[in-house]
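Q: Entry one of two.
A:
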Amino acid sequence: MKLDNPLQMNDWAINKFILVVLSVQLMLFGTVSMDIIGLNIPLLRQIIGFIYLTFLPGILILRILKLHHLGNIRTILYSIGLSLSVLFFIGFFMNMLYPLFGIFKPITLFPLFSTISGVVLILVILSYFIDRDDLNQAYFDVKTLLSTRVLFLLLLPFLSVLGTHLVNYYSNNLLLMIMLFSIFFVVLVVGIDKFIPSDLYPLTVWIIALSLILHKSLISPYINVLDVITEYRTANIVIQNSFWDYTIDGGSNSVLSCVILTPIYYYICNTDITWIYKIIFPIIYSFLAIGAYLLFYIESKSDKIAFFSSIFLISVTPFFAKIPFIPKQSIAEIFLILVFLILVDKRKSVKESLLLVIFSICLVISHYGTSYLFLFSLIFLFVYMSLFGSVNSIKSFLISNYNSKYTNLYYEKSTSFISFNFMLLYVVFAVGWYMYVSNSSIFDFAINMGNDAIHNISQDFFNPQYSRGLNRLDKFPSPLHRLGTLFYILTQFLIFIGLFETVILNKKRFDKFYTGMSVYFFLLLVLSLAKTKFSAMDPGRLFQLSLIILAPYCIIGFFSFQNFFSKKCSNYLKVSATNFKLLSIFFAIFLLFNTGVIYEITKDQPSSISISQESITKYGDIDAVASFYGSIIVTENVFSGEWLGKNMNPNKKVYRGDFVQSYPSLYLFGNLNLSNIETFSDETKSIAPGYIQLSYANIIGGIGSKWYNPLQQRAAYSFNDTLFLFNNKNKLYDNGGSYILFGS
């Protein structure tokens, strides 16, 4: 039996399309009304609100633009990107304009719900009058959805959710281990052409990505510790004030993904901020995987190369263990992949050029780091084409030969390069936004970082003492961890081989834009590895971001390296099935290392907070234990932080003996300012008068940690070495796992 394809609603008959949109609108109105009068149905408003906000505005705009027959992946991604864009612009203009009309608290439920609903209804009316033509709509076969293969794949996210529940409340990692081994099995069978057909590759990639992300994000009832802590506090301030004060300094306060998007989901979905960051944003971020799959397929023209390139991207640890907890970067990467997809599209379309402008603007207002890296890439492309491009390519890049009066974009038949005018537009907007928002603190930071990097270019270059990347290569807790690191080194070597063949030997024909971007990100990785101050992001985050472009080169390098020794044809598009079998084995094992399964089974310095919580404390070294306690929020610390926030003298400092990013027990739950929190360590001779919070790691774990600034990483020590600091200190609070001391 065949049904209308819900993934391509923009191709439906207009009456059926509008009926579904209005039905969702009415259901949301009904759930909001029920909650107001006290009739709450668990999860109903959250699910409807998520679908409404994340997909409906975008699918309506696609209909208005008459963008049809885009395929499942493009339709989903464009819908998400346009929906988030609409939410950005609605929230921003409400915040700026509504106070002029006497609405001084625009970021609240009624103004948001009424405005968003009004915009959606306007889009419905426009779509009805603009796009009423009969279309060749797409269908999907119910038998395929109910097939054993699909049902098996759909089981994986449920195992991830149930598995984290078992870990959180029963300390049992069985289901998560089953889920991870199931993913291992799926990667293997694709390599031997069994079980998973090629038309299910995008679904497979997305399911694996979502399962891996959720198995990290759902650990503990609190948010995980990373940049999300400051984003949580910033979004909460906007919610409490019902208004975004854009003059406040700080990176998180300058990005709409934090100050606008989070409050909108908070009010419309009636969801605590914690679950927005643990479920909603991670789900949105997971769609990056299928966007990358499509990008890789466009460039390689091979579904298997696209599949394994995507597996490489989603199996590196930062993809599922770090970026989901930096929401601003995760949202920015969605817009980045959308920009890339449009730029490699050879079709000459003014409408997609308009989308390019929209997505580029949203990239800027989503994350300063990612947007500036893309800005520098545009400048690099200009230089790259000037040095290595043909005369015609340079001329086409500089001259805006387009016939649209609405945009300054064009597409060549042979390349996808954007016009110089677009590059100028992006640079001006990116610089202007961060100069005038948050008192230009982000712009000043970028300038200072660049100056610091340039002035120190010859100092300690490739020195492990000053390079986070090289320092990690220099430290191995065990031979097995050394092997895991060697897998990473090998993948980067293969990327180099693949890029060398493509750029230098010119054996592979990639789009010139894609090739230029590849060279840029590879050089950026080398510089960040050589010197910490060359990278605004840590090497893991930058590596993951770079793989959005560089991942296929690992596959090319793998086949080239193998064919070199086997004296086979080096054309990566004509490789034998045996090559893919070896490749599937390689990435399946790579995945087991990165998820921590290997270390958990062998009890060899386990490090995964999802499957190895007990093993870390039993078998991990002091650095592993310190990293574990620095990655989670412990309930005992929360209770002591809340107590201290309510009872302390606000003029006194609070001292901590273990480094945790932003100290959430004090910053979030105690509502302290970071300026009031100081640290002590085994190098401290005495502690000034004030409060001391002894954490769970100090008391139960017996460890402390400090921040080593040249490498910007944690350094652990035995907490017994600091006990003399607490002589003559009075204990004010004790919950068994965390103390509050005071000394004058």
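Q: Entry two of two.
A:
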Amino acid sequence: MQVLETERLVLRRLTPEDAAFILELLNDPLFLHFVGDKGVRTREDAVEYIRHGPVASYSQHGFGLFLVSLKADGTPIGMCGLLKRAVLEDVDVGFGFLSRYGGNGYATEAAAATVSYGRRLGIRRIVAITAPDNVASGNVLRKIGLHHTQTLPLPGYKEPSLLFTPVDQVTARPDAALRPPSPIAPPPDRRATAG
């Protein structure tokens, strides 16, 4: 089922038939470095990831991660979509692409279409998180109208994540993005949030 179409891309819901691609993507060196190891080592692991992640999210929330393919030839190149993480108050836009497709503007194109789709679904505020050293993703988020507002620790990540929020909807309280606020969280890194 096609969900979105842009000038160069088609975004659709993931299915278990996409397992071979998901296995490749989740083991791409840049994905492992910036997003993390999801423990997907076999095609069967990839099927379970799809079923318990994106497919479960479609049922529970009405949205989730989509497969992103080139419109010209149908080649799958990444995934992008809306996520509802238990540790974030807001819905966030997430994306990951095979390394060989980086630098072509595909992530920006897919993320912009996804945020627009979320607004059509009635989601009023869409945020994003990224690793501090993921400069490319930070640039994508700025291009789609998000702005780095704070640095915060999130369960399951080695280092604090950068939180990006809509420029016109900056978080009023430093702890408002977290659900629930972490009692052992260090204060946000002021150097990263300044300017």
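A: Comment on entry two: Confidence is low (pLDDT under 50) at residues 170-195. The chain has six helices and eight strands.
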